Amino acid sequence: MIKKNYIITAHQPAYLPWLGLFHKIALADKYVFLDQVQYVPKTWINRNYIKNESGKLLLTLPVLTKGHLKSKISDILINNNLPWKRKHFNSIRSFYSKSKYFNKYIGFFEDIYSKEWKSLSEITSKMLIGFLSLLKIKTEISFNDDYFFKGKNNSLIIDMCKQLNGNVYIFGELGANYVNKEEFRKNDLKIYFQKYIHPEYFQPNGNFENNMSIVDLLFNCGEDSSEIIFENNVSKKDLIKKFN
After folding, report:
1. CA distances from 32 to 29, 126, 166, 206 (A)
2. CB 71 within 8 A of CB 39
């Protein structure tokens, strides 16, 4: 039985995700870690920025790309022949060593980068669960490989909502460019396009840079991070009212 306004969203894995992903997850009742779709290189799946007084730095998780044009994200392996763990941890430690909440969060990253990781899905899922815990976001997480969602694009999302008993689905803002709204209407599904307004928060030294990794917000703002993510953005209560 479909619950009234049971909200579903999904997203591809993302390494060190940006703030907007956490806002979208927090709006939903259930989030699907969508790694059974095709891997697309040169996207935010395996990279993001951190920042210090010298500017921003792109941290890219190296992956083995042979045959990747036909590979699902879940099949993408990390290139552990490169010293990426040491480089990324040292960069994070160096960039945020003087931040107010360095001691509060550095242990989380030390633990992540001390472990062995084989696949892109493995490390990004572990990081995501950890970040959600730090942000106290309690949305239920489901993994794509726990189900068999049929179809592609619109039909995939519609089938996902049916299997998960959802009747509202959250797309990112760009979803408006490709979603067949009529197909969702025919299936009694409501849709919402998240238009994330990036908040400004305290970044020591230099001009403010938006679209940084969640890493930047946590180290600079600590326990206020969850509240900042929602600044000037729709709340879950607002979203539910919209569909009543």
Report:
1. 10, 14, 12, 37
2. yes
End-to-end CA distance of the chain: 18
Q: How far is CA 184 from CA 15, 63, 242, in A?
A: 30, 36, 17
**Distance between CA atoms of 8 and 160, rounded to whole angstroms?**
9
What integer is the mean pLDDT of 121-136? 98
Q: How far is CA 228 from CA 19, 102, 207, in A?
A: 9, 18, 18
Amino acid at 97: S
What 3-state class would DSSP assign to 102?
helix
d(CA 244, CA 241): 5
pLDDT at residue 1 in the model: 43
35 within 8 A of 46, measured Cβ to Cβ: no
pLDDT for 205 beyond 80: no
Q: Which tops the pLDDT comparison, 174 or 53?
A: 174
65-78: pLDDT as tens digits: 876 767 899 999 99
Write the CA distances from 187 to 36, 159, 168, 191, 193, integer angstroms: 23, 10, 11, 11, 18
Sign of the torsion formed by the C-alpha atoms of 215, 216, 220 and 226: negative
Token digits of residue 59: 């941290």
**Cβ 159 vs Cβ 10: under 8 Å:** no
Other C-beta atoms within 10 Å of 125: how many?
17
Q: Which residue has the tokens 């190296």?
A: 62
Q: Please, which residues have CB within 8 angstroms of residue 233's CB and are 6 or more apart in sequence?
A: 23, 196, 197, 199
This prediction's pTM: 0.95
